[in-house]
Amino acid sequence: MFFDMLYSAMSAKTPAQKCTEIEALARISKIALASAQSYESIKSRHSPIYPLKQPSYVGFCMITYPTRIRRPKHIKSEQSLAKMLHSIVHIEYSAIDLALDAMYRFRDLPLSYYHDWLEVALEEMRHFRLLHECLNALGYEYGDFPVHTQLFDAQKATSDMSDRMALLHRGLEANGLDANPFVVSKIKHFEHTLRDRLLAVLEVILHDEIAHVKKGNKWWRYSHTNASTQEFLATLERFRAFYSPPLILNIQARIQSGFSTEELRMMSRHYSV
């Protein structure tokens, strides 16, 4: 039942349905993941693993290429604020499915693995809801602007757990830590009644995302026999179609999420070449 519910939540046709199913999953998980004994019962059922054919948002979002989506460099109007906010809403919605799929696709792992990613899924859902409410307050809905499928495509391309943790949760999600200060700066310089509310939400998201990257770091090291910086960078290079190096690293946030100072120095040198 647990893995079937994960697949159903990932496949939900609307945000409301997805959130309802995740809340139900959380309730069931209090029993299903309560102990090693109950977890062993779930593992023994051998639920099949189905591929995901398309993103869950395809029914209400217009899909386009990432290069055709222009995020405003400066916020000068409510519409430009809405466009930027919409892109973050989309990332958070996509991140819900990434956390769900991390549980669904990779089986027979320690019980703590499923506790970790269920917590991430619930927090990504909370981020989505908080940002979606702000978007609604501006008079817009999720789906009013085009979106890309880059996170979903990266998810499909990483059927190996080590690759998934490296690219998605230690790579792209860590890039979000780097982007946060720039988004905050843009909002701070735009006078609007939603400004303080948005800044508070972004502070919550940064705090939670540090913990998410830390979990990605933990399980990447668990899944990899040679968990070195060189191997991490090599993995990102293999998946360069999905990964763009950050212009500036958020050193403090990355250290809090499990990157070492030496590793960040190596990354800075690598990307500056």
What is the gist of this entry?
With 273 residues, the protein is mainly α. The protein contains eleven helices and no strands. 67% of the residues lie in helices and 0% in strands.
Tell me what the structure shows.
The protein has 273 residues and is mainly α. The chain has a single domain (2-48, 77-272), classed as Ferritin (Up-down Bundle), CATH 1.20.1260. Helices cover 67% and strands 0% of the residues. It has eleven helices and no strands. Helix 1 runs antiparallel to helix 2 and helix 7 runs antiparallel to helix 8. The longest helix has 29 residues, at 195-223. The N and C termini lie far apart (49 Å).
List the topology elements.
Blueprint (H helix, E strand, L loop, with lengths): L1 H9 L4 H18 L3 H8 L34 H28 L5 H27 L12 H8 L3 H28 L6 H29 L5 H10 L12 H6 L4 H12 L1
- Predict the CATH topology: Ferritin
Question: Could you tell me the mean pLDDT?
Answer: 93
Named CATH architecture: Up-down Bundle
Inertia-based shape = globular
* Straight-line N-to-C gap: 49 Å
Overall structural class, as computed from helix and strand content, comes to mainly alpha
- CATH class identity: Mainly Alpha
Please report which band the strand proportion falls in: under 5%, 5-15%, 15-25%, 25-35%, 35-45% or over 45%.
Answer: under 5%
